[in-house]
Amino acid sequence: MNTPPALSISNLEVSYGEIHAVRGISLEVPAGGFVALIGANGAGKSSTLRAIAGELPARGTVFFEGRSIDPLPSEQRVRLGLNLVPEGRSIFGNLTVLENLKLGAWNTRDSKVFKQDLARMYHLFPRLEERAKQVAGTLSGGEHQMLAVARALMTHPRLLLLDEPSMGLSPILVQEIFKILRAIHAEGISILLVEQNANLALRHADHAYLLELGQITLSGSGAELLAHPKIRDGYLGK
Length: 238
Ligand code: ATP
Description:
The protein is α/β, with parallel strands linked by helices. It has two domains: 1-81 and 157-238, 3-Layer(aba) Sandwich (Rossmann fold); 90-156, no CATH class. Helices cover 38% and strands 26% of the residues. The protein has ten helices and ten strands. A six-stranded mixed sheet has the order 6-7-8-3-9-10, sandwiched between helices. It is globular. The model has no long low-confidence stretch (mean pLDDT 91). The site of adenosine-5'-triphosphate has 12 residues, from strand 2 and helix 1.
């Protein structure tokens, strides 16, 4: 039997009143795939991710591992194995790193599993172990982002949606975050990555889509898009 894609969306539409932010897009993340959705500011990338995660009302269909999840609220989507790391990271600044990770494990009742998960996070993100008792609001931008990813991983996702993980980070930290994303992907977790930094995203993704004004205007392998004149001229910067 063929493995269904991790994610398959058709004709997805999101509106904010009069603003038609996402205009009927269709895309797929194969099982175990690393897919990027690139586009300029305001193209509709975050709205797409939030609709897939069930955080925004949307029209169209969303299938997760072959199953329609349209009627499900976001917590149930997380329980099924689909988790969003939002832009801006949204961790609890007044709680410690460890407390944030505990909150991430809300769907894990078994304390043995929790300890194993925590050990895995500390292995992936050694800095988080060093900072376990530190209040999260005092972390650096990179550590903040690592905590946001680690917290999402505590829910055992099989598909991780990432909204601009490179945002506001120094080039060295961006490299570190992407190294971790590759490690997570190598463990078998499928990834849908939203990035304004097209160069970075296309170098890591197996497949990518370009979103412009709420519509997909180009798709192909990361390498194909990197070489495409439209991307080279409009999205790769100097
Ligand atoms: P960015 O990289 O700047 O976050 P984006 O590609 O993620 O951009 P969205 O945040 O999805 O784009 O926004 C798409 C469009 O929807 C924009 O025109 C934006 O102004 C509008 N929009 C987003 N959120 C809201 C909202 N809560 N209310 C009204 N309009 C919104």
